[in-house]
Amino acid sequence: MARPRSAAWPLSGVAVALVVYATLYPLSGWHWPEGQVFRWALPRLGHEAASDLAGNILGYVPLGLILCLAHLRSGRPAWWAACLTLASASALSYTLELIQYAVPSRIPSLTDWVLNSLGAAWGVLAALTLHALGVVAAWHTMVQRWFGSPSGWGPALLWIWPLGLLYPPPLPLGQGQLLPPVRLLWLEWTQDVSWQGWLLPDDPILIWSRAHASWLALPWPGVFEAAVVALGMLAPLCVVCALVRAAPMRLALMAMLVMAGMGVTTLSSALNYGPPQALSWVTLPSSQGLLVGALGGAVLLHRSRLTCAWLGLLVLAVLVWLIHQAPTDPYQAQALQSWTQGRFIRFHGLARWVGLLWPYAAMLWLAAHLVRRRADLREAPPREGPDALA
């Protein structure tokens, strides 16, 4: 009998991406290291800042914890899960330290590698402790009760949705505006290529001014903002209802997501624009959109999972189309980068990409979920009653 998929594996991938992004930021100015500079044996620096020491340990604790739990949930013995996790985390840290030879603003360090491995070890110890106390088994039982047949990517999508809101989108909860940053990246990568002008204008500002000229002329921008907020709130609620069968469980999860969306958006405004601007996102259109999105989730409470999956695909598709019509300030990233100091900006950049990619990942999961559910319904014996398509 195949084991049910665990959300720990997708979350491990997110943890790895977070570590890679934080270690190699900024992702620019790469150069091939000179032979006399590159060494397989990592150098030991003469001075280490206390904040760096703590960051190196704490940064790998979640990775060690989640990755070890993923191995344990896959049925591996505790000792084998611990060894695999420690070896993987240590190898990842060593590889990233070597890559830092090619990043101008980063310095490889033996101390960093040792502390990263130590942080992963602390995470492994925490995972083994939770496993020995039965917490992992109790969590698995609860997840089965909530999600029925748990699918690893579905719960993971719900976990990481609030993370994408840490980087302020063009409109509250309006994730998925992927085309403008991709165009700018392409503009940067092809800046010395003669045929760049065939694909992109010389001035990056034109990317926004041309794309959003029609939107700026609309007489009802408040309705547009309310629609984006409503769809942005309704999208994760559709994922909940496509994943969970029982109405009480759906209601509890949807309430948590609504609170998380409001709380993280407020936190994002406070972190990025200053504490006095924490509630600047709360306008009349955004409040109306939030209410409509939450009421839309209530309508889904007793709908079948197939219906919710189809509606989720439609909601996400319209959200992505609408958010690409919204104007984006091309200097927003630069302004945020100058206001936000220290290590937070590295995690901040990852949150931006989570927000940009989350709707597309959710659409892929919903499409796969529809295919899987239809296959299960064809193989299952016919049932009677209102739950036949649940």
SSE blueprint and pairings:
Layout: H1 8-24, H2 50-73, H3 78-99, H4 110-132, H5 135-147, H6 153-160, H7 179-189, H8 196-199, H9 205-211, H10 213-216, H11 221-243, H12 247-273, H13 284-299, H14 305-323, H15 332-339, H16 344-379
Number of strands: 0
Looking at the structure, what is the overall shape? globular
Please indicate the percent range of residues in DSSP E strands (runs of 2 or more). Answer: under 5%
Provide the succession of SSEs: HHHHHHHHHHHHHHHH
What distance separates the N and C termini?
23 Å
Features:
390 residues; mainly alpha; 2 domains; globular; disordered C terminus
Report what the structure shows.
By secondary structure, the chain is mainly α. The protein has two domains: 8-27 and 50-147, no CATH class; 160-188 and 203-209 and 218-377, no CATH class. It has helices spanning 8-24, 50-73, 78-99, 110-132, 135-147, 153-160, 179-189, 196-199, 205-211, 213-216, 221-243, 247-273, 284-299, 305-323, 332-339, 344-379. The longest helix has 36 residues, at 344-379. The protein starts with 7 loop residues before the first helix and ends in an 11-residue tail after the last helix. The model is unreliable at 333-346 and 385-390 (pLDDT under 50).
